[in-house]
Amino acid sequence: MSAAELHNNEMIHRYLNDLRRYLSRLAPHETQEVIREIESHLFDVLDQQAANGQAADVAEILRGFGDARQLAALYVAHIEEGAPPPRGFRAIQSVKKSVTASLYFAMAVFGFSMAFGLLFIAGAKFLLPESVGVWSTPHGDSIVVGFVSVPPMATPEVMGWWIVPVATLLAVGVAWLTRKVLLVLKQHM
Q: In this structure, are residues 19 and 72 in contact, taking their beta carbons and an 8 Å threshold?
């Protein structure tokens, strides 16, 4: 390896180490992803210069990237606050954001499905009063709740018509709680 190549490698290594130090606020996997992005971009530019027959000017390329501290600050803002990525660079997807988005949609489906199911039970009691309810076995070992085609034999219905207001209030409570949880999750997306 020539002295110029050693000098270029040293400049790249120093720049990436400075960048890594300024990215210390991020999780290690996020820091590593940013370093890989910058390194990839750097070597793409070097390869493009070589393909065009130009001499590799690492110092000029690194000046084009800007100060390592400023570039790191832009990436930290991008990952933590959702700011646009630094100009000319690819967006880094935070794992935490994708998990939060998945959790957001799963919570919405689960919570609102539960609320709808409770409302369905409350409404179905009016249409099929003998098939909707809460039953307890004679010894109290188990409970059957919901919509059944044939009510359990020799088991008394525990709630009777009280299932309508109870299921309705539970549905409203579950929907309200789901909405509150979704608001919190949305703030972290």
A: yes
Q: How far apart are alpha carbons 136 and 155 in whole angstroms?
A: 6
DSSP classification of residue 140: S
User: Residue with structure tokens 């299921």?
Assistant: 167
Rounded to whole angstroms, the Cα distance separating 76 from 83 reads 9
pLDDT band at 136; cut points 50, 70, 90? confident
Domain count, the chain: 2
From 68, 93, 118, the end of a domain falls on 93
Q: What is the pLDDT of residues 98-130, one digit of tens each?
A: 556 778 889 999 999 999 999 998 998 898 888
Q: Report how far apart, in Å, the C-alpha atoms of 154 and of each of 108, 128, 147, 157 are.
A: 39, 19, 17, 10
157 and 106 in one domain? Answer: yes
φ/ψ of 134, rounded to 5, equals: -130, 120
Residue 135: phi and psi, rounded to 5, are -120, 150
Q: What is the C-alpha to C-alpha distance for residues 66 and 146, in angstroms, rounded to an integer?
A: 64
* Amino acid at the residue 20: R
User: Which domain range does residue 28 map to?
Assistant: 3-93
Structure tokens at 11: 């400049």
CA atoms within 13 A on the CB side of 23: 26
